[in-house]
Amino acid sequence: MRYFLLIYALVVAVIVGIAGCRGSMSRKPPIEIFPDMDRQLKLRPQQPNAFFPNGISSQPPVPGTVRRSQPIQTAAGPVLPFEDAPVNTGRLPGTTNFVELNPLAVTGALLQRGRERFGIYCAPCHGPMGDGNGVTRKLGMSVVANLHDQRIVEMPDGEIFNTITHGKNLMQGYAAQIPVEDRWAIVAYVRVLQRSWLGTLEELPGDMRTALERQP
Predict the structure, then answer these.
(1) Which residue, 48, 78, 160, 195, is the most exposed by fewest CB within 10 angstroms?
(2) What DSSP character marks residue 64?
(3) Which PROSITE patterns match (predicted)?
(4) Structural contact between residues 116 and 182, judged by C-beta atoms closer than 8 angstroms
(5) pLDDT category of residue 19 using cuts at 50, 70 and 90
(6) DSSP code per residue over 116-128
(7) 6-16 pLDDT tens trace
(8) CA–CA distance, 135 with 158 (Å, rounded to integer)
(9) Nearest-CA neighbor of 22 among 12, 11, 36, 33?
């Protein structure tokens, strides 16, 4: 045991003596335990290189590559994902004010997409009708917002988008799970649920109103 401790102390002293000189002034090159971390094999962009058959280092994207900066089609025109625009932030550019209306064109396809995404991400807590009576309420989670409350009905569309993105209170943010366009689709569908819940008979077209009035 005594010899082991002596050898151990000697090894530690040698290691400290060698590694401890790292950073001191010397004309000798530093010790590189993993030289590939400092000296990597890489291609310089826009420079000739014989590795590829066409002789250049910067290659075009592989066919079928998905662009990371694919623009989002809004009612006002295409917007890139990194722009400070209402479709990306839910706010007026350069302010903290939420936009009043959905920047996407509200179409049947958008509402159908919103209905699908709402059923996946929102209905478990808020319920299929948005009244807060989802599965989690039955499991004991009592604090779930009713999307038909007056304060939510009066919220700007941008504020609902912001809540979906970043979360609020016990609700987590869904920015990582739901793309920007799908978040706006959910906002549009929430407005449809609110309209169906709070609408009056007088607001219906004549034929639909007549059909409802005839029902017992």
Answers:
(1) 48
(2) T
(3) CYTC, PROKAR_LIPOPROTEIN
(4) no
(5) low
(6) HHIIIIIHHHH-T
(7) 888 888 777 77
(8) 27
(9) 33
Distance CA 108, CA 26 (A): 72
Residue 60 structure tokens: 């075009």
Task: Give dist(CA 106, CA 203) in Å, integer.
Answer: 20
Kindly state the tokens that stand for 104.
């996407």
User: Half-sphere exposure (CA, 13 Å, Cβ side) for 90?
Assistant: 19
Average pLDDT over residues 64-71: 75
Q: What is the DSSP string of 72-100?
A: EEETTEEE-TTS--HHHHSB-TTSSPBPS
Number of residues in the chain: 216
Strand, coil or helix: what is 195?
helix
Structural domains of the chain, with CATH: 99-202 (1.10.760.10)
Residue at token pair 């009713």? 146
63-75: b (≥16 Cβ within 10 Å) or e: eeeeeeeeebebe
CA distances from 60 to 52, 57, 66, 164 (A): 12, 10, 13, 36
Q: What is the pTM of this model?
A: 0.65
> Three-state DSSP class for 10?
helix
Q: What are the beta bridge partners of residue 79?
A: 72
Kindly calculate the radius of gyration of the chain based on its CA atoms and give it in whole angstroms: 30
Q: Which two tokens stand for residue 82?
A: 């990194």
| Distances, alpha carbon 167 to alpha carbons 161, 163, 183, 197, in Å | 10, 5, 12, 24
